[in-house]
Amino acid sequence: MSKFYPVAEPDIGEREEELLLDAFRSGWISSLGEYIDKFEDDFAKFCESPHGVAVSNGTVALHLTLKALNIGPGDEVILPSLTFVATAAAVKHAGAEPVFVDCEADIGIINPAAVAHAVTNKTKAIIAVHLYGHPADMDALRAISEKGKIYLIEDAAEAHGSTYKKKRVGCLGDAAIFSFYGNKVMTTGEGGMVVTKNEKLNERLRFLRDHAMDANRRYWHPEVGYNYRITNLQAAIGVAQIERYDELSKKRNNLLSMYKDTNIEKRCGLQLNPRKEWANTCVWMITAVFDSSNQVDINLLQDKLKSLGVDSRPYFIPNHLMPPYQACRTVNAEGGKQLTVTNELSAMGINLPSSTNLLKSDVQYITDCIENALS
Ligand SMILES: *Cc1c(COP(=O)(O)O)cnc(C)c1O
């Protein structure tokens, strides 16, 4: 078997090429141009929200949002420990203190009971990560945020088009961020977006994104700003990806069905992309969570799969275990310090090849490899 199955591949084609070339030939290759406006408008509409502010990537989208909300030194931001490290890094970049909370069993989304225990009078924001495309429990989180006058920010980097109780993510808090990195549901190569309903926040995000230049006086900068702009070339690719979203999400859901049809869940004692009844998730990655009774050594499994040409990814390592974050406060659903659910889920989860161009025969091969590797 000489074929190699990567965990993710971008799904880009003729339409992306057409719009990218159009942007290129227009000469507007930098951070001004019609495609940027269109990308922002189209994506905001896609999220059922009025404003979209495109930026260079998802990490700076988070940082910019925290800065625009005046979150900084002395403030605490509550976030799940089970997330990509960018969520925590952005809080540190803003100068605020991350407070890591435990997740819900199986699905891994932020646990609202733990959030309620974690709130102090220093808490300024909650970052609800829609992990592996599955929306966080936004009603429960909004109740906490409203009660404490705390901002609620969605990290929807992995969840383009997912819905919570039939509403698209991106319009469920004060602001939401998205990533358009190469392995995400929609990509622009590198890229990000902040989506918000708040007009004032929209203006402040635009101001800080572009060196904090005074709108009425060119080259006058009343604050320290950033260069977090995206290019017209990237935006052109993004416009095509939004156009193709229905096709992309259909392919992704179909891929999950193909995996399920192999009966791998029963064959190997695992759950594929578990979800709550109120969630409709756009499949980002195929996630497999092994039953806790099933003492699978994920590292060993990955090595065996790799030797058979099947790439995989371990679940995120809990952020509170990594050096820059070890001193941060941690809170579980009972108010204690041990993030047991997070630690256990992180050790039992794996992402499998999730490319939209996989065929039924490829998926059969991949799942056969998993069964063989476990036996
Ligand atoms: C990918 C990702 C980010 C960061 O996005 P980049 O565009 O890679 O900077 C942030 N949060 C989560 C949960 C992500 O998966």
Name the features.
single chain; 375 residues; alpha/beta; eight-stranded mixed beta sheet; four-stranded antiparallel beta sheet; 13 helices; 38% helix; binds pyridoxal-5'-phosphate
Describe the structure.
With 375 residues, the protein is α/β, with parallel strands linked by helices. The protein is 38% helix and 16% strand. It has 13 helices and 15 strands. It has helices at residues 14-26, 34-46, 58-68, 86-93, 112-118, 138-148, 199-209, 232-243, 245-261, 264-268, 298-307, 340-348, 360-374; strands at residues 51-55, 76-80, 97-101, 123-129, 151-155, 163-164, 167-168, 175-179, 192-196, 270-272, 279-280, 286-290, 313-314, 330-331, 349-352. The strands form 3 sheets. The protein has an 8-stranded mixed sheet with strand order 1-9-8-5-4-2-3-14, sandwiched between helices. It has a 4-stranded antiparallel sheet with strand order 10-12-15-13. α1 (14-26) packs antiparallel against α8, α2 packs parallel to α8 and α3 (58-68) packs parallel to α4 (86-93). The longest helix has 17 residues, at 245-261. The model has no long low-confidence stretch (mean pLDDT 97). The protein binds pyridoxal-5'-phosphate.
